[in-house]
Every structure is written in structure tokens, then in C-alpha cells.
């Protein structure tokens, strides 16, 4: 028998985040689960199972951190290339300005 996925993974992540961030506002974890599950339209036991499962899983390194580091490296390379191009253009402008002065003096 196939188990149906009634809730999306995004919904589950949001629900878990709500419980973990708002748990301190309630007298107990169960009170937080009951209140939040009522608002989300799921059962407190389902929400408890999601929270328990998320706490049992080892936290994986954030892919956002890796992509940020990669993006920073790309931007640094691009910045270096643009500085090099800017120097070349500055030298070319100076060359042509000098050539124009030389042409006017003759």
C-alpha cells in the first residue's frame, strides 16, 4: 500500500521552523504543537513526528554557504579581470592622448 504525501516538503520545513522558533512562547512543546498544528491544518502528532525526525537528522552543511563561497570566488575573479581591463584601457587612452598632442604639435 502506497503512503500518500499529503504535505509538501516545503510545508513540513515551514511547520518545523514555526515550532522551533515559537516554542519558547508556549508552556510546553506539546502546547506549541497543538496551537501551531491547528493553524496549519494538520494533527499535533504529525507535527511532533516531523520535528522529532528533523532533530534526529544530522544537520547538513548549508548549500547556500557553498554557493555563496563559489559566487564570491567568481566575483573576485571577475573583479580582477575588470581591473586588468581598466588598466589596459587607461594605458590606451594615455597613448592616444599623447599621439593626438604629438600630431597637433607638428
TrEMBL record:
GO terms for molecular function: DNA binding; transposase activity. GO terms for biological process: DNA transposition. Residues 52-71 are annotated as: Disordered. It comes from the Bacteria. Coiled coil: none annotated. Residues 52-63 have a biased composition (Low complexity). Pfam families: HTH_Tnp_1. Belongs to the transposase 8 family. This is Transposase. It comes from Thalassotalea piscium.
